Amino acid sequence: MWAYIVSHSSLLLRSEMTYSDQDNYSEDTAYNIDLEFFGVNYINIPTNLDELAIKEITIEELAIDILIDLLKYNMKIFEIESKKKKYYIIASGLLIGKNKWEDQDRIFDYNSNLKHDEVVFQSN
Asked: Considering the entire predicted model, what is its pTM?
């Protein structure tokens, strides 16, 4: 978990980028993957995730009990699986972006979402 901004209800999950001075460096892995959730109503994830898979699910597929009010206003349920455990985020949308930023602390722009080198997926 890289950042959560309460005032914007934005959650950023970011992979670690490898740098040229690291032993496992490769041009193929020298980038970040950002999962940028917006309009976040519910978060149930650990601070670190490994080898994750993410998908949007319906309330019928949800494996935990939640307040139905969290799903108002066309909210989406995102299921994240990591190490055979499932976690959930309820948000209005998700953007998955790829970038090669050297500034590790870059989070969100004040006026809008991050500008990624490549948008891999967008749901809103």
From this structure: 0.79
